[in-house]
Amino acid sequence: MSAFVVAEIPALPLHTAGKYVAGAYLVAVAIVLIYVAIMAIRLGRIERELGELLALTEDDRLAARGAGEDKERADGSQDVSNTPRESAPA
Question: Could you give the 3-state DSSP secondary structure of residue 81?
Fold first, then answer.
């Protein structure tokens, strides 16, 4: 009999529980927003570093092509190390 009485009594009165529920939702939303902000910062940093690496590889390719053209002019042969290749899926 006492089990039924305990089951019907809420842990907190409903008029005071609303504050805690709202607070819990606010904390959960804040944590999600902080997580998304951290991921956005990391993504921006990775994109910036990837752009820098891409620029470096383009500079290296241009320098290698320039050196390859000089080599081709000097001995009359072609430099095949810088020619584009088709890649097969792994």
Answer: coil
Q: Which domain holds residue 47?
A: 34-71
Contacts of 81 (CB under 8 A, 6+ apart): 64, 68
Question: From CA 18, how far away is CA 85, in angstroms rounded?
Answer: 65
Decide: residue 31, CB within 10 A, 0-12 exposed, 13-18 middle, 19+ buried: exposed
Q: How far is CA 60 from the centre of its chain?
A: 26
Confidence of residue 63 (pLDDT cuts 50, 70, 90): confident
Residue 40 lies in a domain: yes
Enter the pTM of the model.
0.52
